[in-house]
User: Which sequence fits this backbone?
């Protein structure tokens, strides 16, 4: 399996346990929602969503003209059998794979690997569409009931379509508000819904039977009367009448979408799915019989503007007020159903968005930190339901269309995994790695029978429910379900063709999904224990398997582990109930690691809770060259082993607070043979450990290197190497370890793609233009460091453009709060917000409140060894190296106006280079003249200078990307890259051969003409030339390559003339690169924009002539020279050679 870096926009140069992946997103997202649903509340939610008796009673208008009582009762029996077979089939799958995606997750797991993404995509779109339509049905039925009450109480009232539309919209907003602000009330509401619904059906039934006595309809009418006023033949009409009962029994998969919020989901979810259908069918059948016996005038019921249900109750009771009071039971039940269905629909959309199945998926995949709900998914669901409601404005059959849309879409989503199971075989329900034998099964005979019946029911109803409800067909009574599905099909197909087929790989790889599901099953079955019992311990040993490498069915990592050997002396003891990790390493007969896994044991908790506290360095001393493995943090496994070879055979699985890595493309490591390992570990001599003691071996500090790329930059997507930025090139040229030391120092590299690099319109145009996700980038980079850092490690931060801003924000965050341990990372979001508030505090009281909030985290982290303590001799951050830092914005102010409010979100002071940074490097663009791309220079503090901090800020020729990289002609950016590498090669290990192969010169060294900054949308923005300065706090210098430019900015010209000693000398690596530049004389480059450069040069000349003419005219017509000075009396041109010309004219006038 491969890490899904494209999901997160991150790439790990070496495999580490904290690399973001899809499963880490699962765990972290799940960690944002609480497990607050008991089994009783789950049953209540399922029953509230189906709301069968209410749904069937409220939709009597559909079935009475299309089959009458026969279709109502016996159609319900048929629908119940079909729905029960479907729910049982899905429940059997859910028992094995309890995942929040429901049918579309199951489709991915049951489909052939080559078809899994497409099948999962189709199933996912039908599922979310069905749930969105199902939400809309609650508003539709509620609107019918409410307008019916008004019509009954006011006989002259005539129902208008826009009345239904307004009630529908208000109903949707109410469901949204409850799901947003009342999330903690949902379990209580669900339990109340079950009680209220059962009470309502009993009260209405008894009251109607008592009031209607003795004028009941005959059993002949109830069980055998057939009515057909649809215009279709009797067979088609009867099938169309199934819509009422099928709708009343659909949506039973709702519980599968909240498995992350329930205990023991593999047990409770399947039970709830089947019980919901059984309770719904039974209560619905009994209630419909009562209504049919109490019905006295069929024609009046069909024609009543008050609705069929209210008219029947009124006929039974003879009282309008009594009928309205009884109708409050289904109205309130519908309200309960509305919020429950909104919950299921939003969770379904959220799960699909986490897998990049929706447009703008990163937005809809977020969990709101304040309300702990997927707020964006709730908003999306509400907006789409509002659009659904617009059908009321154009069709008298709107209710029929909305009900049909929900039933058809959901039945299709149910059918896909059931069909896959039926076609591919039941062996998929008994995978070899299943933690325990299944306890819920339909059997080898009952299973296929249930699958076939359920599929037949779904296929037949899907076809017929697309037909119009009556003949002849008119625009008013048209069934607009087909239009809805046409729109959804076009959107889904377009999205698949544009991005899905390239980036959507299904919810998860097969093995990864299995592991998540199995861990959920395994850990949910473990009893909850209390960690406050230090006298009781569990013992976990490191286990090594010796086995020939066997490919897995999915073509991934090796499996079928055989010989098991426990390594004495590697045992770890932890208090009962506390996190612990069992590490398993599989080694093949050639001595190669075939598999390394951490199995987490946390009683009563999901894997997201495990290993939140790093365990001590334990006893692996020299295990096959894997020195210093830390149980609970297996990131050093691969990175600390020498002699890495390129061959995809090694896998690493690790749980952490939000980390889970699984890859089959990680470089394997050649270890000593199994016999040598056994001898080196002396397996025949077990060594016991006393409680509280640790077996420590030598530990080699590692280097954590974070590379943050610029806007729209992503090396995982751009295939042409010439498009790479300097950040990515630097990440690629770093060795896995520094072998200049003995033992070698591991170098763990984390590459973070830039803002706006994800392949969707929101990311490209909104996020990329505004930098809206900059805060998330800062948090992601800091979290990577915190999850991998161990006292003594060295931290490096590199970045370009907004990535440079990100790197500097992370450095500032570390300087203010230190590097948090994994336990403290649970509060990282609150700390981040508190830091923002502190930076924007307007008074001392507010500043003190922020300090008080941060105080607990500023004290001691991990025995004080992980703090940024300036009193210690050792720096916390080894180096911060950036190319042309710009802030969070970048869109011309002519479009955005005053962007200060948006900028305040990221308002950390990043201009100061904190004393906790040992070395600061900044390559700045001299020719960048966009007003909104002002460079943010480093300023050295007094304390940093006293500690011997190094700061180099050097100006280079070219505009923004000429320094940071990204142009096809990258001579200038290569010069800036080599300057950075030359300044860090003494503290990191660089692949020099790779570096030397990067340049593709199109001109002599340093002579390539800069690209234009004023292009595209930036033509509408202002211009502002950058000005180098002589400031002891910034340490600015000029690079010698600037002298090679054929034309210069005024600032560069003045610098060359006035400060010849401020040019930084070329370092040996740079000098070697210049001597071997490789440019061919006489070669005419195709990509050099000479016309644009010449045009700009002429513009510069014209501007200079204009300034001189203006100055001369001013001198001839005025006696004051202040016209050439600013408000402070300073010449506006004194820093440029243009200014010297003007000053010369002024001097002539004065003389």
Assistant:
């Amino acid at each position: 399996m491969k890490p899904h870096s494209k999901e997160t926009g991150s790439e790990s140069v070496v495999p580490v346990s904290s690399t973001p992946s899809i499963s880490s997103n699962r765990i972290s997202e799940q960690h944002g929602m609480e497990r607050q649903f008991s089994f009783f509340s789950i049953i209540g939610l399922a029953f509230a969503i189906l709301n069968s008796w209410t749904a069937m009673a409220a939709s009597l208008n559909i079935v009475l003209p299309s089959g009458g009582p026969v279709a109502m009762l016996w159609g319900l029996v048929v629908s119940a059998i079909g729905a029960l077979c479907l729910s049982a089939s899905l429940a059997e799958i859910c028992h094995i794979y309890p995942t929040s995606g429901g049918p579309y997750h199951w489709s991915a797991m049951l489909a052939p690997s080559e078809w899994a993404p497409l099948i999962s995509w189709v199933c996912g779109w039908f599922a979310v569409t069905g749930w969105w339509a199902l939400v809309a049905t609650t508003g539709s039925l509620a609107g019918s009931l409410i307008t019916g009450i008004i019509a009954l109480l006011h006989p002259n009232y005539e129902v208008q379509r826009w009345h239904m539309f307004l009630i529908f919209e208000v109903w949707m907003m109410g469901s949204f508000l409850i799901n947003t602000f009342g999330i903690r009330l949902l379990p209580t509401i669900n339990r109340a819904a079950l009680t209220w619904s059962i009470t309502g059906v009993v009260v209405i039934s008894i009251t109607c039977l008592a009031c209607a006595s003795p004028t009941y309809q005959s059993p002949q009418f109830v069980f055998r009367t057939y009515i057909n006023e649809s215009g279709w033949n009797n067979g088609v009409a009867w099938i169309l009448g199934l819509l009422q009962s099928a709708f009343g029994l659909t949506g039973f998969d709702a519980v599968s979408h909240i498995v992350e919020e329930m205990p023991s989901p593999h047990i409770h979810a399947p039970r709830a799915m089947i019980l919901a259908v059984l309770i719904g069918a039974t209560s619905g059948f009994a209630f419909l019989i009562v209504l049919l016996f109490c019905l006295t005038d069929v024609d009046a019921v069909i024609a009543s503007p008050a609705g069929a249900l209210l008219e029947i109750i009124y006929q039974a009771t003879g009282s309008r007020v009594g009928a309205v009071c009884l109708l409050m039971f289904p109205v309130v039940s519908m309200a309960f159903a509305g919020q429950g269905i909104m919950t299921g629909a939003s969770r379904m959309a959220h799960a699909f968005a986490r897998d990049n199945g929706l447009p703008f998926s990163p937005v809809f995949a977020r969990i709101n930190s304040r309300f702990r709900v997927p707020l964006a998914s709730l908003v999306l669901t509400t907006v789409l339901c509002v659009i659904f409601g617009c059908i009321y404005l154009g069709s008298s059959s709107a209710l029929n269309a909305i009900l049909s849309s929900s039933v058809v879409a959901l039945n299709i989503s149910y059918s896909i995994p059931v069909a896959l199971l039926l076609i591919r075989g039941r062996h998929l329900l008994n995978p070899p790695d299943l933690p325990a034998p299944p306890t819920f099964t339909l059997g080898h005979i009952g299973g296929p029978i249930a699958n076939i019946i359920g599929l037949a029911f779904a296929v037949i109803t899907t076809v017929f429910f697309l037909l119009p409800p009556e003949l002849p067909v008119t625009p008013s009574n048209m069934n607009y379900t087909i239009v809805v599905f046409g729109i959804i099909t076009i959107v889904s197909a377009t999205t698949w063709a544009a991005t899905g087929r390239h980036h959507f790989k299904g919810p998860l790889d097969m093995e990864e999904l299995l592991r998540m599901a199995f861990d959920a099953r395994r850990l949910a079955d473990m009893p909850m224990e209390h960690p406050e019992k230090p006298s009781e311990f569990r013992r976990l040993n490191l286990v090594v398997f010796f086995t020939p490498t066997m490919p897995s069915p999915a073509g991934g990592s090796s499996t079928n582990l055989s010989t098991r050997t426990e390594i004495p002396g590697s045992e770890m003891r932890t208090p009962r109930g506390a996190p612990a990790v069992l590490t398993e390493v599989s080694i093949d007969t050639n001595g190669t690691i075939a598999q390394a896994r951490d199995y987490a044991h946390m009683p009563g908790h999901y894997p997201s809770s495990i290993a939140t506290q790093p365990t001590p360095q334990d006893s692996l001393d020299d295990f096959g060259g894997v020195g210093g493995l830390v149980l609970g943090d297996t990131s050093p496994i691969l990175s600390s082993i020498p002699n890495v070879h390129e061959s995809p055979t090694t896998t690493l699985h690790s749980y952490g607070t939000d980390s889970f890595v699984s890859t089959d493309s990680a470089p394997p490591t050649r270890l000593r043979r199994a016999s040598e390992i056994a001898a080196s570990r002396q397996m025949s001599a077990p060594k016991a450990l006393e409680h509280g003691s640790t077996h420590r071996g030598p530990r080699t500090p590692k280097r954590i290197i974070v590379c943050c790329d610029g806007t729209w930059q992503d090396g995982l997507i751009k295939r042409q190497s010439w498009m790479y930025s300097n950040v990515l090139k630097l990440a690629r040229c770093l060795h896995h370890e520094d072998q200049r030391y003995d033992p070698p120092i591991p170098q763990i590299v984390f590459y973070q793609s830039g803002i706006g690099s994800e392949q969707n319109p929101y990311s490209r145009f909104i996020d990329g233009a505004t930098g809206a996700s900059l805060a998330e980038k800062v948090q992601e980079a800091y979290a990577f460091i915190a999850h991998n850092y161990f006292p003594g490690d060295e931290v490096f931060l590199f970045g370009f453009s907004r990535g440079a801003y990100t790197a500097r924000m992370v450095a500032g965050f570390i300087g203010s709060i230190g590097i948090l341990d994994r336990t403290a990372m649970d509060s990282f979001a609150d700390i981040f917000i508190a830091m923002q508030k502190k930076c924007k505090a307007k008074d001392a009281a507010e500043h003190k409140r922020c300090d008080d909030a941060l105080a607990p985290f500023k004290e001691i982290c991990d025995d004080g060894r992980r703090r940024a303590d300036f009193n210690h001799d050792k720096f916390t951050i080894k180096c911060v190296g950036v190319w042309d830092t710009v802030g969070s914005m970048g869109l011309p102010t002519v479009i955005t106006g005053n962007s200060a409010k948006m900028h305040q979100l990221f308002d950390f002071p990043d201009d100061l280079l904190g004393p906790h940074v040992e070395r600061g490097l900044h390559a700045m663009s001299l020719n960048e003249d966009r007003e909104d791309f002002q460079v943010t220079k480093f300023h050295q503090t007094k304390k940093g200078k006293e500690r011997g901090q190094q700061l180099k800020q050097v100006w280079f020729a070219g505009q923004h990307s000429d320094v940071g990289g990204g142009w096809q002609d990258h001579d200038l950016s290569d010069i800036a890259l080599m300057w950075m590498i030359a300044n860090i090669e003494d503290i990191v290990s660089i692949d020099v051969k790779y570096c030397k192969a990067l340049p593709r010169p199109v001109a002599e060294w340093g002579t390539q003409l800069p690209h234009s900054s004023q292009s595209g949308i930036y033509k509408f923005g202002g211009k502002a030339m950058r000005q180098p300065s002589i400031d002891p706090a910034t340490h600015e210098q000029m690079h010698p390559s600037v002298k090679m430019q054929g034309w210069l900015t005024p600032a560069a010209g003045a610098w060359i003339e006035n400060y010849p000693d401020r040019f930084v000398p070329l370092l040996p690596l740079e000098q070697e690169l210049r001597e071997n530049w490789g440019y061919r004389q006489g070669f005419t480059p195709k990509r050099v924009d000479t016309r644009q450069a010449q045009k700009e040069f002429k513009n510069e000349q014209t501007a200079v002539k204009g300034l001189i003419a203006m100055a001369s005219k001013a001198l001839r017509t005025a006696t004051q020279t202040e016209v050439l000075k600013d408000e402070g009396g300073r010449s506006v041109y004194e820093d440029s050679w243009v200014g010297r010309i003007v000053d010369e004219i002024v001097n002539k006038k004065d003389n």
